[in-house]
Design goal:
Elements lengths: L18 H27 L7 H8 L2 H28 L4 H29 L6
């Protein structure tokens, strides 16, 4: 039996059908697919002991693999930050604190994306900077 009153309403930062709601679900589906690809490729095709810097560089030299990893970076960032913000709002964060947290998460996301793109560029022979 619940200790909450019958008039308790679950709060959510997501409105069904909103852009953030759709992004959370779309990125979840994409992440499940790419994680399955990752586990298959890096745990069944190539075993962990066989993973080398040269092999990783070779994989990042394939356009499809590079684009998949960059898409994964963006999807994971959007999904994670969106989920953290939603959890905080669900826990009662609102007003000025919510705006400060939102902008802090946006800045952290941009930093994560920039660093992730720098690593992808450094690891890929397709990108000459």
């Amino acid at each position: 039996m619940s200790t909450r009153g019958s008039d308790a309403v679950a709060r959510s930062a997501f409105e069904r059908g909103s852009l953030r709601w759709v992004l959370q679900r779309a990125t979840a589906v994409f992440l499940i697919g790419t994680l399955a690809f990752h586990f298959y490729l890096l745990h069944f095709v190539n075993h962990a002991a066989d993973i080398t810097l040269a092999g990783t560089t070779a994989r990042m030299g394939e356009l499809g693999y590079l684009l998949t990893m960059v898409a994964f970076l963006f999807a994971a960032t959007v999904h994670g930050v969106n989920g953290v913000y939603n959890a905080l709002v669900n826990a009662g964060l609102s007003g000025t604190r919510a705006r400060v947290v939102k902008w802090g998460l946006i800045v952290a996301s941009i930093a994560l994306l920039v660093q992730g793109l720098r690593v992808a560029a450094a690891m890929s022979p397709l990108i000459n900077l």
